[in-house]
Write a structure and sequence with these properties.
One of its GO terms (biological process) is carbohydrate metabolic process. GO terms for molecular function: intramolecular phosphotransferase activity; metal ion binding. 36% of the residues lie in helices and 22% in strands. It has 452 residues and is an alpha/beta fold. A hairpin with a 5-residue loop joins strand 11 and strand 12 (257-258).
Length: 452
């Protein structure tokens, strides 16, 4: 029997195919998902990985055997699956391993309206059923087998996004898009069609072997080609999508990366113009700039832990209009509280095309403080190192500590956060300050304790 502890993560299923899971297991997941959600109809999509059609088809068979009517939307981005779940009012399953290497695949599951399924919201029960049914076999359903039909929602998805951000009146822009051979190559041409955008398409061929570079734009080595093309062609900006195109990373006209915190602040200001007085969620390692911009634009910032389940829970609890993370995930109330990199990219295009200056000048107002970026340290004793940090700072004058997520220490002119990785023996450090010299000083001081 497969070791589900290795593939059922906090928010999704993910592992090597076929070594860790295969179509027979996918069929059991389809049956269990239908049982746990109580769904009489579901929608399923998949990315461009070679194993995705077979796995998603097996999941569909398992769901239909439990009586569910299945709508297959085929090749799609993860946010396109969320759109289908929201627009059709159906629980959904997306087959993707996002930016993981080619041999991986996974399932992101949601309830109707794109509500996330994680460990505390159904995934643990799904795992338990799959384990039981792997051993005992799936009981025969009382209902008749459900039908499996196909539907293309790409045009509806594009129309929905274009209804949320009007790009028809912007000045013409030249934009380079690096799809990384992922699903952005499928969605971008339809979303951008007919708009005043000169599209320079890089790596739009759907290829789950990722022949050009990993589809993870947060790793600097994976945006080198995009940066070079923007500089060579004099483009106004560059956009890079990850493998399942739910995250988007931006570079300016110089090819310089734009901080996801700056994008969060920019989009927050635009969403607050539409929804005055709204709440904006940000995780605790986004820049000081984010809550400042939210307050300046009449909104209410709410700080939360890192991770999409926490962001979505807070958005649902507070009725927030928007949420942003340092990892380039952007969440919108107008998109069922789900994350969509495409909609964030459209906000950037609208903001840039609605004025005459370059992107670097536009985002400068949202990128106010030097930061270290995330620095990982391999440690044998995560808890012990965090305790040592707490002891070093808890009695220091002028500092406050909190443990919402790891350890955050805040002073008047700097802050740092240290969090333990859930999957590796790592501590992750982020530092921000009012000047670069202070960033360096605090970084070195904290690393000396972590690595002692």
């Amino acid at each position: 029997m497969a070791d589900l502890s290795q593939i059922v993560k906090a928010y999704d299923v993910r592992g090597v195919v076929p070594a860790q899971w295969d179509e027979s297991l996918a069929e059991l997941f389809g049956a269990a998902f239908t049982e746990v959600t109580g769904a009489d109809a579901i929608v399923i999509g998949h990315d461009m990985r070679p194993s995705s059609p077979g796995l998603s088809g097996a999941f569909a068979r398992g769901a239909s055997a439990r009586g569910a009517t299945v709508t297959l939307i085929g090749l799609c981005s993860t946010d396109e699956l969320y759109f289908a779940s929201g627009a059709l009012g159906l629980p959904g399953a997306m087959f993707t391993a996002s930016h993981n290497p080619a041999q991986y695949n996974g399932i992101k599951m949601c309830r109707a309206g794109a509500a996330p399924v994680g460990q505390d919201t159904g995934l643990a029960e799904i795992r338990a059923l799959v384990e039981r049914w792997s051993d005992e076999g799936v009981p025969q359903p009382a209902a008749e087998t459900g039908t499996i039909t196909r539907r293309d929602v790409l045009g509806e998805y594009a129309a929905h996004l274009r209804g949320l951000v009007d790009l028809s009146g912007i000045r013409p822009l030249k934009v380079v898009v690096d799809a990384g051979n992922g699903m952005g190559g499928h969605t971008v041409p339809t979303v951008f069609e007919g708009l005043p955008l000169e599209l320079d398409a890089m790596y739009f061929e759907l290829d789950g072997s990722f022949p050009n570079h990993e589809a993870n734009p947060l790793d600097p080595k994976n945006i080198v080609d995009l940066q070079a093309r923007v500089r060579e062609t004099g483009a106004d900006l560059g956009l890079a999508f990850d493998g399942d195109a739910d995250r988007c990373f931006v570079v300016d006209e110089h090819g310089d990366p734009v901080s996801p915190s700056a994008i969060t602040a920019l989009v927050a200001a635009r969403e607050l113009a539409k929804h005055p007085g709204g709440t904006v969620i940000h995780n605790l390692i986004t820049s000081w700039s984010v809550p400042e911009v939210v307050k300046e634009n009449g909104g209410k910032p709410v700080r939360t832990r890192v991770g999409h389940s926490f962001i979505k829970e807070e958005m649902a609890r507070t009725g927030a209009i928007f949420g942003g993370e340092h990892s380039a995930h952007y969440y919108f109330r107008d998109f069922w509280n789900a994350d969509t990199g495409m909609l964030a990219a459209m906000h950037v295009l609208a903001a840039l095309g609605g004025q005459q200056g370059p992107l670097s000048e536009l985002v400068a107002q949202y990128d106010r403080y030097p930061a270290s970026g995330e620095i990982n340290s391999t440690v044998d004793d995560q808890a012990g190192r965090l305790a040592a940090l707490k002891a070093a700072y808890q009695d220091r004058a002028g500092t406050t500590l909190d443990e919402l997520d790891g350890l955050t220490v805040t002073a008047d002119d700097w802050w740092f956060n240290v969090r333990a990785s859930n999957t590796e023996p790592l501590l992750r450090l982020n530092v921000e300050a009012r000047d670069a010299a202070t960033v360096d000083r605090v970084r070195d001081e904290v690393l000396a304790i972590i690595r002692a």
